[in-house]
Write a structure and sequence with these properties.
Largest sheet: none
Radius of gyration: 20 Å
Structural class: mainly alpha
Low-confidence stretches: none
Helix content: over 70%
Strand content: under 5%
Number of strands: 0
Oligomer: single chain
């Protein structure tokens, strides 16, 4: 009975951090639709759809594989599985960034943002970092560290929302009221 209680508590913590993150990001949609012209928001949405696909490809099921092999009898040390997976994700994420940045012009054009190479480059690096951090989050779940997992997720969410508000609301306001401050 204690095992089921612990499993329910851990699942609630893992699930709650994901639900909170999705809900708060959903709350930003009205801000985006108000601040961005429809055509620009369409490009943002299109880029985010490419991001979702890229994350699936870049993590290539490594989280599931980690759980499978870390719990397998053949591997005595789960850290060996973890380090091998982390090296693999590190190499593939770095290769992804190098390849995408080498062809930033065609990649930006394919994402309907040919004049915004810097935004696409930032998104490429962000996606690679997100793919790389997938395995450390899986390790926290494997190590049964739900509070650390949820804390890191919530810090990530707060940082994301804070940066969105800073760049979408505060920077334009400061540019309008005190342009010399940002220059």
């Amino acid at each position: 009975m204690a095992g089921i209680k612990s499993l329910a508590k851990d699942t609630a913590i893992y699930g709650l951090s994901s639900i909170i993150g999705r809900f708060l990001n959903w709350c930003l949609v009205p801000l985006y639709t108000q601040m961005f012209p429809a055509q620009e928001y369409g490009v943002v949405t299109y880029v985010y759809s490419a991001v979702a696909l890229a994350l699936i490809i870049l993590t290539y099921g490594m989280e599931t594989g980690f759980f499978r092999f870390a719990n397998h009898d053949r591997y005595k040390d789960p850290m060996e599985v973890y380090s091998t997976g982390l090296i693999s994700l590190g190499v593939s994420s770095t290769a992804f960034v190098a390849l995408m940045l080498a062809f930033i012009g065609p990649v930006s054009a394919a994402l309907h943002a040919p004049d915004h190479h810097i935004y696409i480059a930032l998104m490429i690096v962000t996606v690679a970092l997100d793919a790389f951090t997938a395995l450390p989050f899986s390790y926290l779940r494997y190590a049964k560290r739900p509070l650390r997992f949820a804390s890191l997720r919530l810090v990530n969410i707060a940082l994301n929302i804070g940066l969105n508000l800073f760049f979408i609301l505060i920077c334009p306001w400061r540019w309008e009221n005190a342009p010399g401050w940002l220059a």
